[in-house]
Each structure stands twice: as structure tokens, then as C-alpha cells.
Amino acid sequence: MEACSSYRPWHDKASGKTFFKPISGKCLHDYFYFIDAQFGLCYVRVPTWAPFRLQVYFNGHGWLARQLTQAGIAFETADNAFLHLADPLAAQRLADSLDATVLHRRLDDWARHCCPVVRHFRNGVHWSFMQVEYATDVVFRKQAIFQPLYESIVRTAVHVARPSMSPRSSGTNSPPTTKARSATISRPASRAPASATTWDPPASSSTIKPASSRASSAPPTMSPSSSTTATWNSVTASASSSSPHCLTPIYSLGDLRQLMHAANDRYLAFMACLDNPDAAQKALAKMAAPAKVKGRSFRGFDLFLDADYRLFLTLARGEWSISGFRAGDLRAHIAGLTPARASYLIKRLRTHGLIKKVAHTDKYFFTRLGRRVVVTALVIREYFVQPSLVRAAL
Questions:
Q1: Burial track 358-369 (b if 16+ CB lie within 10 A, e otherwise)
Q2: Is this prediction's pTM over 0.70?
Q3: CB of 325 within 8 A of CB of 312?
Q4: Does an H or E element contain 287, and which?
Q5: Among 20, 28, 180, 295, which residue has the least CB neighbours within 10 Å?
Q6: Which domains, ranges and CATH numbers included, belong to the chain?
Q7: What φ, ψ does residue 247 adopt, rounded to 5°?
Q8: Alpha helix ranges (H) inside 96-172
Q9: Regarding beta strands 126-139 and 81-85, do their DSSP bridges make them parallel or antiparallel, or are they unpaired?
Q10: Separation between Cα atoms, residue 26 and residue 12, nearest integer Å
């Protein structure tokens, strides 16, 4: 039993008229699976109650594979992903060639075959899109370029990209919620060797998902050796014998492609602003890990320990950026710090590459890494961690 739309007889006592009233209910659904010569594996979902709102699905990767075979373009796939295309530009043109008229005829054929009752609908079947997904892929030639970036991109997308951002990126207001009465059309993203990541922003969200375990996932516009392709990844439409609530007919396919491409370009531009985190991760690991010098171990720095925080707060004094500092300066600003302890802190900072000594003096300056670490530690703790904990406690 699945949710469906239907009607029930209704008598209006005030007017004395009897008519059909739309309702929502649950009924049995039949699923018809078949392999189409043009679109590959498909299914049609048919409710057993009128008005028989159909859902049709086919995988666009299968459709594009058949187009490539007919055009004589070599390709390689792994499960549902294209790993190699002999001519990516030609594949892109094929992916853009899906015609709404051809699609309409095919959908009507499937509807008549799997739900013969539609033959009695004098006005035919109206097809409209309920959900559209469009993929813009960036292809990296080397897997090693992408791997340090993937976790950062996913983490940033999870924390920064919210569902409410998608309508704004496409230049529209949030669309009204619609029920899933659909015919789903999927089309893949073209990829070159050793590629790629697919960005699939649907009507109300933006997501990132790797193409396959064998392929090198690729973030957007992060490498000069990358190339981009844009294809329909998924389209969801509705079929009904009456006027549907969704006002996007299948003949808006071309307009939707332009709008979604523009939205993806803005999303890719945002993702392209992310820095390569590889160097930062190495620096953070070096700062936090213990270090040994001549058999003596010096523990790393923990940004959330109060003692290390007070040390970084002291080191951030502006005058020391110009004149440098000595071990005695640390004792003057950190209460209870003994000369031996001050010397140990200096040694820890030098061992971890955060400060350097001026030759023939007892003064120290920040290294480039040390300055970044101190500033980052203070910003994270004072502007993010502490305010968040205060709000949580209220």
C-alpha cells in the first residue's frame, strides 16, 4: 500500500449537487520493469485507483551509453559511472540532445502499454516535471590532485550549503512543496579518464557524491588541468489525466537546462573558493603531534587547553611582532611561570616550528606557520567555540 491521489463522491446539501471530491489515500501499486531499446532499464509505477497518476523511471546513463554506441564513440563504465570517454565534447552534445517531443511520445507509449485505462481519457495524459536534477562535472586527470580536497569539500558543503540556498542560487524564491507524482528521467554526466565528482542540486538541495569507488572524485574548478561537462542527471515529471499542481511541463526541458546550469555555475564558483587543505592539515598535524629532539620528547599543542591558550594569547601581543620576545617576556606576562618552564615552552615552540631564534641574540620571532597557528587558534576559540558554548548554556 502506497500513498496516492484519488476521488470520492460528495453531495453538497446546500447546493443539492453531487460531484467527485479529490482526496488522498493509499492503494496497491503495480510496478512494470522492462528494458527499452533506447532508454535501457525502466519501470512504470501504476496506482490501482483513479486518476492513475503514473511514475516512470529510466537511467540516463543507459540512455547515453546507447547514444554513444550508435555514434561509434568508445567509452568505459563501472556500474553506473562513465570512467572513460573517447570524445567528451561529442558525448556532451549527445547528452544535451534529448528532445522533449521524443520523450513525450515515449512516455505516452509506456503509459498506454502499462496502464491501458488511459486510452479512455479523451484529453490524453499531461506530463509535467516535479523534480529536476542537473549535474556539472569537473574532470581531474590525476586522482592524487583530488584526494586531499574531497573531505574538505564535503565538510564545507554539509556545514555551509543549506537547502534554502538552492532557490537563491537559481534566482528564484523557494518553490511550493509538491507531492511525488512523477516520471523520472535520468541522464549522466560526461567524464574523461580518472574522474569525477557529480554535483546534483535538485529543486530544494545541493549535494556532492563521488561517481564511483574506482573513479577519482573531482571538485569544481580546482585545477588548471580540469575540464567541465554539464548534463541532465535526473528529471522527475508527473502524469495525470487532469491539470496537475506542478506547472512545469516537459517542454520546458531546454529552459530548465539553462537555469540549472547557471545555478550550478554559481555553486561551483563558491566551491572553487575553497583552499587546498593539504598543507594546512600537515601543519596542524605537526603542531599537535609530539616531537623528539636528541631523544627528548616535547608534547604538541592543544588549542583547547587553557595553558596553551594563555601561551598563544601572550604570544599574540602586537609589540612582539616587531621587536621579538625573550623567555623573560613570557615570565612577565604569564603568572607563575618559572625560568625553567619558560625555557621549556621556548624549546617546544622551536621544536614544532612555530618560532625561530634571531642569530647571536636571545630574541625569538614567529615563523610563518607559527603566526597562522596563533591567529587561527585565537579566532576559533574566541569567535566560534566560546560564543557557541554560551548560547548552548542559555
A1: eeeeebbbbbeb
A2: no
A3: no
A4: helix 278-288
A5: 295
A6: 2-272 (no CATH), 278-393 (1.10.10.10)
A7: -105, 30
A8: 100-114, 143-160, 165-169
A9: unpaired
A10: 25
